[in-house]
Amino acid sequence: MSDIKWSNFEWAVGPGARPSLVGAARRARIDAITWQRSESATSVRHEQAIRRSKKTRKADEEAKQQAIAAALADRARAEDEAAAAHVAMMEAEVEERNACVADIFDQIDGLLAATIDVDDFVDLEMLRRPVEQLPFDHSDLETSTPAFPSIPDPVEPICRTVEPPTGLIGKKKKLAAAIAAADADHAHAVKVWTVEMDDVRARRRMAEDEHVRLESVRIAELARERARHGVENDAHQVEVAAHNAALDLLIDGLSHGTAEAVQVYVRIVLANSVYPDGFHVDYDFEFDPTTAELRIRVLVPAPKEIPDIKEHQYDAITDEITTTLLSYQDQKNRYTQAVQQSVIRSLHEIFEADRRALIHRISLALGTQADDQNIHVSLVTVVTDRDAFNSIDLSASPPESILRRLGAVVSSDPHGLVAISSS
Q1: Radius of gyration over alpha carbons of the chain, in Å?
Q2: CA–CA gap between residue 423 and residue 410 (Å, rounded)
Q3: H-helix segments, 257-305
Q4: SS3 of 179, please?
Q5: Does the predicted model carry a pTM greater than 0.70?
Q6: Beta strands, E only, 102-172
Q7: Is the CB of residue 339 less than 8 Å from the CB of residue 380?
Q8: What is the rounded CA–CA span in Å between residue 114 and residue 56?
Q9: How far apart are alpha carbons 226 and 222 in whole angstroms?
Q10: Is 100 helix (H, G, I), strand (E, B) or coil?
Q11: Which residues have CB under 8 Å from 96's CB, separation 6+?
Q12: Which of 17, 122, 344, 406 could pair with 13 as two cysteines, CB 3.0-4.6 Å apart?
């Protein structure tokens, strides 16, 4: 034990101290406990960090899954809304098409009813055109070119007033120097002002010259436009005068029952007869003043030109709009009715419009063109006088009965383009 030196323990307590074996052992024990405690706390923190990491990773994963689920739900909802909107659009399209079909059929089925309550008389005086001057369409040129905004003069400089100097010494010199400086400043300002005035005068001359130029252009253009307007107005007056002169001749001719005047008037009456879209009717006629008979030929559309769709439907499975066609019998009946009503309508409009009773009798032949051939197919012929026709109540009898009463010859199957006998 005597060989042990205290210096061997200086590392533990430091030089100059007086350690003992007991102190060294105590310090070693404390260090060991402290290390164990440190290691234990580190382990706890490590475990806690691991748990926190797992928890945050789980929360992050759950958030991502929720976001994906929400996005899928939004997408599904958006797709459902888009699909519903598409179906609504297609159904609206079907409704519009069906309404159009119904409107066309209502007009075709009501060819006669559409004119019974309408006065077909044409007051020719309503066709007279007023004799008036054409409006001048360049009235803006009649206003003088506005003057340019005035350019103000620059402010003319004024020599500043020199205040008398203060003090008792050198007052005269100071005053003379101040006056000289003021005069110099004023002279410089006057020089600058003179340059500015010259510039203003030059700008004013340029503005005046430009105004004169623009006014000259306006006057020249106004003269050209007035000349053009004068030519057009003269032509318009000639045209109106010719129109009214022709109208006077027509009115005079009707008063005498001339063939030309009657034919022109009938053409005006029939031009006013508006048929449905898709059912265009043409006429050709001739008036014989010796017999007071109007011979008229009426051309109606062929059966194939009449719509044959009954209705449209939307098929949600195929996402297509399909059509259902009218039965053959329905197509046949509608076309036959349209042919019969066209005959009666033409007779009614001509007799009613002829208030002078210039036309005593009408000989009418109605037909159409064969489907794929330029062959006229005669479907109805009828000859009737004014009194016989006017004795019939058109609104109380079906067209077939009216034609039978008039002794008309009618095709047995107009829809099948079966022509009437020529004998």
Answers
A1: 55
A2: 13
A3: 259-271
A4: helix
A5: no
A6: none
A7: yes
A8: 82
A9: 6
A10: helix
A11: none
A12: 17
DSSP state, residue 327: P
Residues 6 or more apart in contact with residue 134 via CB below 8 angstroms: 229, 232, 233, 236
Strand, coil or helix: 326: coil
Structure tokens at 325: 């066609």
Give backbone dihedrals phi and psi of 103, rounded to 5 degrees, phi first.
Answer: -65, -45
- Segment 284-304, tens digit of pLDDT: 999 999 999 999 999 999 999
What are phi and psi for residue 346, nearest 5 degrees? -65, -45
Token look-up 């007052």 returns 171
Which of 381, 389, 390, 385 minimizes the C-alpha distance to 409?
Answer: 381
CA distance 341 to 335: 10
Distance between CA atoms of 149 and 203, rounded to whole angstroms?
Answer: 11
**């990491």: which residue's tokens?**
53
Tens digits of per-residue pLDDT, 40-90? 667 777 778 888 888 888 888 888 898 898 888 888 888 888 988 999 999
The Cα 232–Cα 224 span in angstroms is: 12
Q: DSSP letters along 27-69, please?
A: HHHHHHHHHHHHHHHHHHHHHHHHHHHHHHHHHHHHHHHHHHH
On whether the CB atoms of residues 136 and 226 are closer than 8 A, the answer is: yes
Q: Are 361 and 295 in contact (CB under 8 A)?
A: no
Report the alpha-carbon distance of residue 317 to residue 319 in Å, rounded. Answer: 6
Residues 399/341, Cβ–Cβ less than 8 Å: yes
